[in-house]
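ok so I'm stuck.
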Amino acid sequence: MHKTFKIAMIGMVAALMLPLAAHAQWWQRHPAYLHAMSDLRQAYWLVQHHEKHDPFGGNEERTALKAIHEAYQALKDASITDDKNIDDQPPADMTFGDHKGRLRQALQLLHDAHNEVAREEEDPAARGFRDDALAHIDKAAKATNAAMHSIF
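replied:
not stuck anymore, here's the structure
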C-alpha cells in the first residue's frame, strides 16, 4: 500500500505540473512583444544619437524618445501580464550611419514594432497595454518622420 501511495503521489504531482509546463512555453510561441521591445530599444538608441554639433536634437526627436520610452513601458507591462520573460529579448543590431540614416532606420524599426504589436491579443488584461503601446509607437513614428524631414 505504501508503494501504491508513492506512485499515486508521483502521478498527481506530474498531472499538476503539466499545465505549468505548458504555460511556461506559451510565451515562446508568441514572442511579438519581446521582438517589438528589442526594436524599440534599438530605435531609441538611433534617435538619441545625434550629430556632435546638435547633442540635444530637436523637439521632434525629444517627442519620439518620450513616445518610444512610453511604448516600451506599455509592452513591458503587457509582457509581464502575459507572463513573458522580459529579459529574453533578441539583441539589438547597432549599425551606424549618418543622422538622417539613423532616423530612417529608427522609423523602419518603429514600423516593425507596430506590426509585431498589432497582432490579436488573446489576454484581455494585456489589450489595454497593447493599445497604449501602439498609440505611443505611432506617435514616435510620426515624430521620427518629422525629425528626418527637418534635416536638410
